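Possible regression after last week's pipeline update?

I re-ran a chain I had predicted before the update to compare outputs. Posting the input and the new output here so someone can diff against the archived version. Not blocking, just want to make sure nothing changed silently.
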Amino acid sequence: MEDINRFIHGTNLCFKKETAMSIGFTRRDMMQFLGVGAISMALPKRLLGAQKDGKDKQPAAKSLTFFGWSDTHIPTNGDGSKLWPAIDAMNSLPGRAYPKNIGGVVDTPAFVFNCGDITEWPTPQAKKTYEDLITKRLRFPSYEILGNHDEAGADGVEGAPPIMKEWFKRRYGDLGYTFDQGGVHFVCPFSAYDESLGNPAQDLTTEALDFIRKNLNRHYSPDLVPEKLASIPKGTPIIVATHLCYDAMTNRDAFVDALGDANVIMVLSGHYHKAKVTPYRGVNFVQLPSVNSEWPEVTVIRITSNRLVAIPYDYSKRQWIDSSGKVLDVEIKNHRASGIQTSIHEMPRFAQAK
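New output (post-update):
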């Protein structure tokens, strides 16, 4: 991997051998990153062979599958046992049949997404537990955003240590970031939480709205990616992730306005600890479930060329949820179903930060 590391260091990227092997980084991904299309390039054979030999159990049509959860609230002592059943359930979901009205079986997910409040309060023990769980127990890559507990702790408490913020910056390069998977562009802004309000419902910050506007049609990696490679083709399906859910977002109209005419097919969120779907002004708000609640669920998201499904799975009863208020099943347009591909600069660093 010496040649790979030399190339990566030349682009100011932190990318380790084990990361390349674990995410299935391919020759095609490198070509996309460099913008050379079909031009031949001599890459190390070990890089070309890094793709995992997975067996696709989905129908012939290509799709993107990922799992969602939120508000894991790992306690200050680092006890992560509450997360074990959810993680084990996600590990076992691939191959399970969907309900008949959806059809097919659950594919191996490209990743798992956590919509924030990773910790109850940011301590070294809580941070380490989460890091260990997503790298040693969970079998799939993980993306996440920060929540108010990761930033400031319990309601009314100020001055939390910046442990999670620092970890996040080492992992993603900044508190807000973007990435692409399976022809879908993901925009993950950071919105600072105002504990002085004493209210879980509040505005997304002006900075967060600005980040969304600026990055709906580009990759957020100005220090790592040449400007000519940073743009997103018009009409690309987009998913925006915020910690604040629909019910907690007091400036939701300003948020929807910020989306403009971009092809936003879904907004992921957490904060209120239960799965919920709310359509509003043409935008599908999908609230992800929490292990720190009375509903032992994770959400499975499947995106095909013309259909978007988000359905919770109850891992205590081992059955799908059929409540209309929790399930999203809608037609979508313009999804470039090009297979699950991700450029090197768009993956989380998975740094084992101290």
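Follow-up from reviewer: compared with the archived run. The radius of gyration is 19 Å. Marking as no regression found.
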